What does this fold into?
Amino acid sequence: MDIIKTDNLVFEYVTTNEEGDVTDVNRALNNLNIDVQKGDFVAILGHNGSGKSTLAKALNAILLPTKGSVIIKGMDTRVEDNLWDIRQTAGMVFQNPDNQIIGTVVEEDVGFGPENLGVPTDEIWTRVEKSLKDVNMLDYRTSSPNKLSGGQKQRIAIAGIMAMQPECIILDEPTAMLDPNGRKEVIQTVHEINKTANVTVLLITHYMDEVIDADKVIVMYQGEIVMQGNPREIFSRVDELKSYRLDVPQVTELAYELKKAGLDLPDAVLTIDEFTDAMSKYLKG
Amino acid sequence: MIRDITIGQYYPAKSILHSLDPRVKLVGTFLYIISLFIVKHYTAYVLVTIFLLSAITLSKVPLKFIVKGLKQILILLIFTVGFNLFLTKGDPVVEFGFLTITDQGIITALKMGFRLIFLIIGSSLMTYTTTPNQLTDGLENLLAPLNKIKIPVHEIAMMMSIALRFIPILVEETDKIMKAQMARGADFESGNIIQRAKSLIPILVPLFVSAFRRANDLAMAMEARCYRGGKGRTKMKPLKYDKRDMITYFVMITFFILIISTRILF
It folds into this structure.
């Protein structure tokens, strides 16, 4: 079953002047059709201004479509009665780790979501413990979030969403403000919860190396879907990706350039290990 | 230097004071503050000092940390003590030109100074040992009757707790902006008071802009986590009175009565 489905989704940012007349219309999303299956790990790639954050907000019913529709697990975001069920089904993690932590103690922050849902006290505690375990932060349960690193804060934010027991997590550039180590931590955690808790993941990012292990990659450019497929298919089209102002991982680009220069290498090389394997095979034979 | 602000912060530790019900601490602090206005005689001061010192020991918050918090009221303290020292009428002890220090002045200045220090330490001891969330829960619970006259108690309590959570973040940000402006040649140290106040504008404007941006982000994050006001909300840490809470109430009331009796007796 499709957990996320958008049907010709259009979203326009409308600017009005003081009299209420429309002065400018900016179409951020243009006829998007996306289907995400339950349990999948889908990555959405796009350069700044490609509409990917707008899409995330539209999926969480923070923004409502100008035209078309967004259906989350059979619920239309335009129906107001569905609002809270949608937000519980499709939890959202934002970019800035500081601005999404409400509690002053890690466990209180993780408990914020279940509290809002009216979950009984005992169950809140089991949920908090489980979600903190899922993101490997149980040791920090009584710490203050201010003392944690960016990657740790972002994992707490993920735990906060996990405690609401969503079926799907939407992560809107969760690593944009982190250092390389923090990025690795967060991406690893996201993969873990995808596998162990069977939560559908929609990862929005502009870092190509984060999407290598995704089941499906969607590339957005100027509000439209321009490429779609598994990472290997996408990464074999280096020139096309570059035309959408995305940076291909260094090793993929190296293999691509070597192949263009006449070396016999496979189409899409995603990791350094793959590259060394392919290279040694080439050199031997 | 701006990072040294410790008032209103939570100091994580495992102590009796930390585990008390926030309502007890709120009511206790309230009684304590009232009693500070009642104290007059030396015995009362001694009593308050003993009470405060034992509370600090019980809280396991290091004394150094608490004293650091006093730094920010230093100017206020100097003003209060100064005014009382020089402007109180009485028998002159020392005279420098037009300034006279009287014996009455010394006594009131000392008393006022101590009162202020007691006030700050006592109330910040509450925030050191209570997480803002607990504080909010406590306030919400104590003020619940006001809901009947349509005062949005839950919302006010939530606002307070968010404000407290963002104090350290905004302090850090102020520090960052200050350094950024200093790197561009801004001068905050020289000039008279008016010039110095004017030089703060390039700090305040970006600070406000960023605070609004944060508020917007936070509101979105709260909505994404299904926050919809106080209705239908359950508590992760519901408030329940324990035996030690009752004992603390008893201790606080005894303390309050003792302070009142010093006022009557002496």
